[in-house]
Task: inverse folding
């Protein structure tokens, strides 16, 4: 399993948000570089964002960018948030970092998961 994972739940529909494009970026000195991209699965999860055989995760600031506009457009639903960006810090790279997103067309929330 990736050192950084996410799970997206569509709270308006009461089900996992399948097929959301997600980018993981490392943020350094005001600029960001994309480390990985992926799609949420049928359960709304993205478990394999970082490869198991890649370089070890280092402490720093990261950003998960969720393409919520495309997701809602595919359902024929208008949204106020075409993109959700969640910025977080990894202080202990030896820990697993799970960043869930609870999503609706006009609101979202996130938290540090387990």
Result:
């Amino acid at each position: 399993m990736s050192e950084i994972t996410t799970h997206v739940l569509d709270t308006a529909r009461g089900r996992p948000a399948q097929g959301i494009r997600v980018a993981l970026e490392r943020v350094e000195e005001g600029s960001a570089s994309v480390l990985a991209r992926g799609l949420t699965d049928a359960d709304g999860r993205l478990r394999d964002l970082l490869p198991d055989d890649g370089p070890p995760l280092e402490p720093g600031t990261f950003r998960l960018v969720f393409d919520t506009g495309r997701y809602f457009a595919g359902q024929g639903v208008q949204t106020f948030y075409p993109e959700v960006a969640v910025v977080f810090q990894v202080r202990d790279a030896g820990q697993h970092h799970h960043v869930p997103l609870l999503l609706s067309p006009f609101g979202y929330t996130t938290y540090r998961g387990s």
